[in-house]
Design brief:
The complex is a heterodimer. By secondary structure, chain A is α/β, with parallel strands linked by helices. Chain A contains seven helices and 18 strands. In chain A, the strands form two sheets. In chain A, strands 1, 2, 4, 5, 7, 9, 11, 13, 15 and 17 form a ten-stranded parallel sheet that branches. An eight-stranded parallel sheet of chain A has the order 3-6-8-10-12-14-16-18, covered by helices on one side. Chain A is globular. The termini of chain A are far apart. By secondary structure, chain B is an alpha/beta fold. In chain B, the strands form three sheets. Chain B has a six-stranded mixed sheet with strand order 6-9-10-3-11-12, with helices on both faces. Classes of the chains: A alpha/beta, B alpha/beta. The interface between A and B is medium-sized, with 26 and 31 residues.
């Protein structure tokens, strides 16, 4: 990677100087520190264990146009959240913070938002965007956030979303990545959960040439519940990588993870699910499941559950499967007169639908249904 | 003749289970095939439905004069052959109504009938569901997922009602049913019975035949039909057990 770094540094450094506004010295200092972190880490490479299966070097063989972030007002709370962002997790995370185009959304205390908040984070052709969204769900609030990616060309989104779920608050978060198959996407979700709060995340990955999503959930007080689900549906030579990390740092919290993959063609999927149950985190209920359906002999998936449990009084389970369509299910559909290609598509659709069915926003669910059917080339 | 099985030898994993089975079924008839465990009842059902794991070693099966064994399972189904499964398969994520409409429309394409859109089909399905006293709530649920044993069997008969097969093979449909579910399922089958179709009841026990009166009872033992008779034969089996027919087959 030394070559790439040498080529890139002057280029990024030049763009970077333009991002400093001079208007907010605290933010400028944070950006400068992040950029220094990027310079020392460089871009992630497969030599790094966390990026073992995901090689992004091809993305950076060409230059990307970096945008100057829009000026934003950042309050004290948002600034302290921004400072907690793990920019040192890798070079791309550092780059996001250095170039961050920051948006802050606050859901006022005890407010129930009837309509979902929609955030579109698509990147334009040849553009590397660095959106950084901070969601502050104040205590007792309830909201739904829909984060979408629909880049229409070869764009690169390097995004981050920090969600702070206050005490007794509830956040439902749908993340739908349906970028053009020439696009690239790296996204980070960092959620922190307060007392008796609830975070329900569903991530759908359909597009991009190479995509990766890192999702971290950290419980900061007792009684938190997190549902972390996802579906990646890949074909051709697409590559997707999900790294999740659930940190049970406090007692009596629940996390349920359910990720499914459908892989066709020569596509490749990676799922790495970490769960930490800290020493004092008694009463933890942590479950993780990753099921993969391979539709071709050349598709491949690497799945790795990683549970580190330091307390005995917990309920933890995990399971990972990689398989093909069930012969008995297929036979059943055939005996009802469905031609084999339709029967296969229907079973694949059913496999994916388990994740899509939980989506509570009708318009999003309908759109995803259509995307899945379109991917399968079937009318149902 | 609707179905003619001639000297059928078939099995699984290289093991011969059916050893020269003969069977003739005409339209309008209900046949019961009874036999002890391991006699080959399920093998016969699976072979007729076209299960890929089962192989036919010799013999032939004619369905409306056509070579049934040459047809793929889905072709058989569209052409009017239906098997109700002993263990109906769960299909997560696919709703019952979606599944049934697709199956119905595939059959309609084949026979040149009119395909139905979701709304039209829903009305059709509601009517059919009455036959097995099934709540329309089940239409939206995933096929067989989370259904009780009785609900699964009712769902099989609902599928039969929707697809209106010419030949229905009910494989151990009575197994795992309590008496109320058995009555509902049997009454459903009776409503579907007519002079243009035929039904083969494959069963270990006689009790289903209290509700569905067969025209002919065949006793299967050791891969062959060893005895045939009217419905009284079933009662005789109930009384004497299978040992006397097993002895007769050797």
């Amino acid at each position: 990677m030394m070559n790439t770094k040498a080529v890139l540094d002057p280029y990024f450094a030049e763009s970077f100087r333009a991002t400093l506004s001079g208007a907010n010295s605290e933010l400028d200092a944070l950006r400068e520190s992040a950029f220094r972190t990027f310079e020392s880490l460089g871009l992630p490479s497969p030599r790094n264990e966390e990026w073992k299966y995901t090689d992004i070097s091809s993305i950076f063989r060409s230059e990307w146009r970096m945008l100057k972030p829009a000026a934003t007002e950042i309050g004290v709370d948002a600034m302290s959240i921004l400072k907690r962002f793990k920019a040192d997790r890798n070079g791309l995370a550092a780059l996001n913070l250095a170039f961050a185009d920051i948006k802050v959304m606050t859901i006022p205390a005890d407010t129930r938002l009837a309509e979902p908040i929609e955030i579109d984070l698509s990147a334009a052709e040849d553009e590397m965007s660095a959106p950084h969204v901070i969601v502050i769900a104040e205590p007792g609030s309830s909201s739904t956030i829909v984060e979408t990616y629909r880049s229409s060309g070869r764009g690169l989104t390097n995004s981050a979303m920090q969600i702070v779920v206050g005490d007794n608050a509830s956040v439902t978060h749908y993340r739908v990545q349906n970028d053009d198959t020439a696009a690239f996407s790296y996204g980070i979700t960092e959620a922190t959960l307060g007392r008796d709060s609830r975070y329900d995340a569903t991530s759908i990955e359909l597009g991009c040439s190479i995509s990766r999503h890192d999702i971290d959930v950290r419980f900061t007080a007792e009684g938190g519940e997190a549902w972390v689900d996802g579906l990646y549906m890949l074909s051709g030579s697409q590559h997707h990588d999900t790294h999740s990390c659930i940190d049970h740092a406090v007692p009596n919290c629940i996390s349920h993870q359910r990720y499914k993959g459908v892989l066709d063609g020569r596509s490749r999927g990676v799922f790495n699910g970490k769960v930490f149950v800290r020493e004092n985190a008694h009463g933890t209920d942590a479950q993780q499941q990753n099921k993969n359906l391979l539709l071709s002999n050349e598709a491949r998936v690497d799945t790795k559950p990683q549970l580190e449990i330091f307390n005995d009084d917990v309920k933890c389970s995990h399971g990972a499967t990689v398989g093909q369509l069930e012969d008995e299910e297929l036979f059943y559909l055939l005996t009802r007169g469905l031609p084999e290609p339709l029967a296969r598509n229907l079973l694949t659709y059913g496999f994916a639908e388990e994740i899509i069915n939980k989506i509570g926003v009708g318009s999003i669910k309908g759109e995803l249904d259509a995307m899945v059917l379109n991917r399968l080339g079937t009318a149902i | 003749m609707l179905l003619e099985v001639r000297n059928l030898h078939a099995g699984i994993d290289g093991k011969e289970i059916l050893k020269g089975l003969n069977l003739q079924v005409n339209k309008g008839e209900v046949h019961a095939i009874m036999g002890p465990n391991g006699s080959g009842k399920s093998t016969l059902s699976k072979v007729l439905a076209g299960h890929p794991a089962y192989e036919v070693m010799s013999g032939e099966v004619l369905y409306e004069g056509k070579d049934l064994l040459e047809m793929e399972p889905d072709e058989r189904a569209r052409d009017g052959v239906f098997m109700a499964f002993q263990y109906p398969v769960e299909v997560p994520g696919v709703s019952n109504s979606q599944f049934l409409r697709l199956a119905y429309n595939e059959k309609m394409k084949h026979v040149g009938g009119e395909e139905l859109d979701p709304l039209e089909f829903n009305d059709y399905l509601k009517e059919k569901a009455k036959i097995v006293e099934m709540d329309p709530q089940f239409f939206k649920r995933s096929v067989n997922e989370g259904f009780s044993g009785g609900e699964k069997k009712r769902n099989e008969i609902l599928q039969m009602a929707v697809l209106e097969p010419k030949l229905a093979i009910l494989d151990e449909t009575d197994s795992g049913l309590d008496i109320d579910a058995l009555r509902i399922v049997a009454e459903g089958v009776n409503k579907l019975r007519n002079e243009n179709n035929a039904i083969i009841l494959v069963t270990h026990y006689q009790r289903l035949l209290n509700y569905i009166k067969p025209d002919i009872v065949h006793v299967l033992a050791n891969g062959k039909i060893v005895k045939e008779g009217g419905k009284d034969l079933a009662l005789e089996l109930e009384e004497k057990g299978y040992d006397w027919v097993k002895a007769a087959s050797i």
